[in-house]
Design a protein that fits this description.
Order of helices and strands: HEEEEEEEEHEEEHHHEHEEHHE
Number of domains: 2
Largest sheet: 4 strands, mixed
Number of helices: 8
Strand content: 15-25%
Radius of gyration: 44 Å
Distance between the termini: 122 Å
Structural class: alpha+beta
């Protein structure tokens, strides 16, 4: 009985074994590959303005990092991105770095919300480069504040160790500021008063009329000399009408430097050259003065050269005073390191 039971089990075992082998030999069903997707977005600042040139880096588990710059419209786009978790890192000069992350599904076209960059908290040093014209304008503004005893204009001297050449417009502005300064009118009035007391240019006569004529002549001398010698000719000849304070070296070298500066000057190119502007300017002003001085006080070329020589000598004397005294008496002198 037992033998028959075992014999009946043998065919059943063979059938089971065959079915098992058939099952093991069949390959598993294939899993479809995920389709790549895309990620895009827009980079803006906190005001909503687009940020172009921002560096956007894409990193993820299923792919190596990719990098792209945002366009002029602030937009960026990554194509053929494998599905899975991802992270975007956005960096731009002057802004704090931002990140955005998510999970990309198979074949998904992901548009991330606008990424607003905040200004970096550690950006505190902003360097602004001024043009030479702007630097010169700042120097002129400093010079227009310089006054001896806080009253008398001392505009035509620069204490800056690195002065920048003036433009023609700035030369004319400096001449204009000098001739219309209230103290200038007061000085001219004093000169006219002394001339009246000494009866200089007697042809003008005395009284209010004589004083007015002397005042007008003295002021005309100042205006013509200032504009011709410090604005018109320096613009045409490209020369600087200012006195460059030396302030160092031996006393002898400073004296020679101050006197020489009545005959030489700095050109707009930064090189020393003959001071044609001052010499010719004094000659021109002396010649023009013949037009309004009394006839009996005119002496043609002699008066012209006399006035020119006086002008050059006065410039040398003024330079000596500037070099050794005026800085101590002048207010609002800019400090330079």
């Amino acid at each position: 009985m037992a033998f028959r039971f075992k014999s009946a089990l043998i065919p059943l075992a063979f059938v089971s074994l065959g079915w098992t082998c058939l099952c093991l030999g069949q390959p598993p069903p294939a899993t479809p590959n995920p389709a790549p997707g895309s990620i895009s977005g827009t980079v803006v600042d906190q005001s909503g303005a687009v940020v172009s040139g921002a560096r956007v880096t894409l990193t993820g588990e299923a792919h190596s990092s990719q990098e792209i710059l945002s366009g002029d419209n602030g937009q960026f786009s990554f194509a053929n991105v494998a599905s899975g978790a991802f992270q975007l890192t956005i960096a731009a000069p002057g802004f704090a770095t931002q990140t955005s992350s998510g999970v990309l599904s198979s074949g998904e076209t992901r548009i991330v919300p606008q990424i607003a960059l905040a200004v970096a908290a550690n950006v505190t040093d902003v360097q602004v480069a001024l043009s030479r014209t702007e630097v010169a304008q700042e120097q002129v503004k400093d010079e227009e504040k310089q006054r001896v005893f806080g009253v008398f204009p001392n505009f035509y001297v620069t204490y800056d160790p690195h002065p920048v050449a003036l433009t023609s417009k700035q030369k004319f502005e400096l001449a204009w500021k000098t001739t219309i300064d209230p103290v200038t009118f007061a000085i001219v009035g004093g000169i006219a008063g002394v001339q009246q007391a000494q009866n200089t240019f007697s042809g003008y006569g005395q009284g209010a009329s004589g004083y007015a004529k002397r005042f007008g002549a003295a002021y005309a001398d100042l205006v013509s000399g200032t504009f011709i010698g410090s604005a018109i000719l320096p613009s045409l000849l490209k020369q600087d009408p200012r006195y460059y304070y030396k302030g160092s070296g031996s006393k002898r070298s400073r004296i020679l430097y101050a006197i020489a500066n009545s005959m030489i000057c700095k050109g707009d190119n930064g090189h020393w050259q003959p001071n044609y502007s001052n010499v010719i300017g004094n000659l021109a002003a002396g010649g023009i003065s013949n037009l309004y001085y009394p006839a009996q006080n005119r002496n043609g070329a002699a008066l012209t050269f006399e006035n020119a020589a006086i002008g050059i000598g006065a410039t040398a004397a003024a330079n000596l005073v500037e070099e050794f005294l005026m800085r101590k008496l002048t207010t609002n002198v800019p400090k330079h390191e």
